[in-house]
Amino acid sequence: MSRDLSLHWLDYAIFGLSIGLSLSTGVYHAIKSRIVLRRGDRTAKEEYLMGGRQLPPLPVALSLLTTFLSGILMLGVPAEMFQRGAQIWLNFVIGVASSIVTCFVFLPVFHKMKSTCLHEYFIHRYNSILIRRLFSLLFLLFTIVYMSVVLYAPSVALSPVLQINKWWLVLIFGCTTTLYTCLGGLKAVVWTDSLQAVIMYTGVFTLIYKGLSHPRVGGIERVMNIAWDSGRISELGRLDWRIDQYNSLWINLFSGTIVWLASFGVNQLAIQRYASLPNLKVAQSIILYTLAPFTVLCSIVAFVGFIALAYFYNCNPLETGEIEKSDHITIIFARDILQPTPGLFGLYVSCIMSATLSTLSSGMNSMAAAIYEDFLKNKLDGKITDTGATRLNKIIVLICGLTSTGLAFLAEVLGGSLRICISVMGAMSGPMVAIFVLALFFPKSGSKSCLISFFLSNLFCLIICIANYIQNPYNDLFLPTNTTMEGCNGNSNFTIRMMPAYDAHYGNPDTLYISRISTYSYAGVGFVLMMVIGWITSLFEKSDHKEEKIRHLTFAGRNEPWPDTHHEFDHFLKEIR
């Protein structure tokens, strides 16, 4: 970045203050939890991992809003709006539909289990420790890869403008999150997320207000006119049904819903928060109350991309060479707009940092719960005290935090952050959702059909994901800007990007068909594939359970109470210890 726009000391002060607030929140809740435990009305482990199941609704709601809107998405979504249009906005706001499905389909079954880890469902439903651990391994892989990219990408984008080496930022973000999550547990995560949600909203609204007021942007009317005239809004109207294209309305509606179900409906990060609330009605009300704020947050984050488009329309920094990656468009736009007012750019940097820390802390806490509950608890039962179990969970959080920070140093080779994020999330989301849908809606399905379909669908998604990453068939897809000498203040040192001879929306025709399958459709493809294979194989499978005994674990029995006794389940646990 060539411009000499040094930051005011107040920007650095606000950035440092936001880090200090996150750390102090963790320390405060660590101390508060010790006081609560002295009353003896809850266990130390339940207090640490579940917040004593008595967390207030408002901070849980704010935590849910911030957990899945990482620093990658705060930077990558506006850049995608700038480059390729508004389809990415639809891909995110469709999360509202997923939340509603979660509220009335999944949550009534999961909440009544009163489990620390969602994956215990597979023990009750299939009597299978293998399925539980396989799914847990996929969840851990999904989370650790996502966390490493979430940590790396914002550090790279913020490094040039903060004039701090990217690796120092990786260490600052990673160690800060690890420390307060390790100290305070779920309470620290939820309450820090609440603080970070306020910073995120404030930062984005400030950027939008200052951006629209800037003379080079020209107000909201010019922003919308450019977005329309350049074809970025009309992208929402793509109705082609084929999956070998970059994106479409149907891909977003179906696959987008599956992706967000994998986040809000069948993800330990979200279910752990729902289970921390006193009862099902409170948990359902929290989901419904967050629908509007979630839509607003996704929309304003995406709208930043259109404002940046108006600002850079006549002097595209990708064509002038000021930046090399589109992921950096958002941060240099924010720098140009906010830097003249001391402190405002520091606020926006804190906004990006807050989104990053929120995702990281949630991931660490949930990974610790999954590792302990799915792999260690049964072996240690009766051999470790409650206090010892809590200390072990803190050690696991520490290891997860250090591992994700270490992996972030390897993320440089992965390429565009949003592309990796969409690919990995999509490839894993389909089977992750399908395995629960199969269990909930097909009571005749047994452990064998579940395992076979889960393995094959994940294998296929992995193959197409690798093919897409290697061949990158949509590398030449972008929508035009209008860079001119006048727009660049008389500077003629720019190179206009030329559109390829083929229709780039359908990918490079010289690449393999499977590599051109839309990364946004991976979740839908994986979901359909597993459901079809699971249904077919279940027809040939001898049922290993009586349907009436698992009715309360299916959609049909979602409102039935949890049975008072589980003799078979208790016997099974004794056998696997």
Structure, explained:
The protein has helices at 9-37, 44-50, 57-67, 71-84, 87-93, 95-111, 121-126, 129-162, 166-213, 219-229, 249-264, 268-275, 280-289, 291-312, 317-320, 329-338, 344-380, 386-408, 417-441, 447-471, 513-516, 522-539, 567-576. The protein has 577 residues and is mostly helical. It has one domain: Sodium/glucose cotransporter (Up-down Bundle), CATH 1.20.1730. 52% of the residues are buried. The mean pLDDT is 88. Keywords: Cell membrane, Ion transport, Membrane, Sodium, Sodium transport, Transmembrane, Transmembrane helix, Transport. This is Sodium-coupled monocarboxylate transporter 1. Pfam families: SSF (PF00474). It is a multi-pass membrane protein.
Structure in a nutshell:
The protein is mainly α and 577 residues long. The chain is built from 23 helices and no strands.
Key terms:
0% strand, single chain, globular, mainly alpha
In CATH, the architecture is Up-down Bundle
Low-confidence stretches are none
CATH class identity: Mainly Alpha
Return Rg in Å. Answer: 24 Å
**CATH homologous superfamily label:** Sodium/glucose cotransporter
DSSP helix count?
23
Secondary structure: helix percent: 55-70%
Reported for the largest beta sheet, the result is:
none
- Order of helices and strands, N to C? HHHHHHHHHHHHHHHHHHHHHHH
